[in-house]
Write a structure and sequence with these properties.
Elements lengths: L1 E7 L6 E7 L6 E7 L6 E5 L4 H10 L3 E6 L2 H20 L2 H15 L7 H14 L5
Antiparallel strand pairs: 1-2, 1-5, 2-3, 3-4
Helix pairs in contact: 2-3, 2-4
Length: 133
């Protein structure tokens, strides 16, 4: 499992690029968009393209902010992404901004999530989770 988060703030771009590989040597999902906003786009790539994509992004001015291999960290990022997708599809803008603020705190600022926020995030998840969960 691998996770990388890159940002490009050059020339007022304010973009992010997130890469998540769930299984060793498996394919990875790339998500990108404006910093602080939910990802607008995503695409699946073969695992063999991991370093190629990193190189392409660095050449475009992106800087690696996080390069992580901890399974717990990656699983939490995946949970945040599922929640963001569910709220984006069915929730309100304020709920989406609330969830995004805690993802940014956890992923970028490396802060823990307070208990009351965890309770609120779980309530939002129960409200919007896909039927198959």
């Amino acid at each position: 499992m691998k996770y990388a988060y890159l940002e490009n703030k050059s020339r007022n771009h304010f973009k992010f690029y997130e890469m998540i590989q769930k299984e060793p040597f498996g394919s990875f999902e790339a998500r990108w968009g404006k910093i602080g906003k939910p990802s607008l786009s995503s695409k699946e790539y073969p695992g063999t393209e991991w370093f190629t994509k990193l190189g392409e992004k660095h050449a475009k001015g992106y800087e690696t902010i996080i390069d992580e291999t901890s399974g717990k960290f990656i699983n939490n990022v995946l949970k945040f992404n599922k929640l963001i997708d569910a709220v984006r599809d069915k929730g309100t803008q304020s709920e989406l901004e609330y969830v995004m603020s805690y993802k940014v705190s956890y992923v970028i600022k490396e802060q823990g999530i307070p208990y009351d926020a965890k309770v609120s995030l779980n309530e939002i998840w129960r409200k919007y989770k896909p039927k198959e969960e």
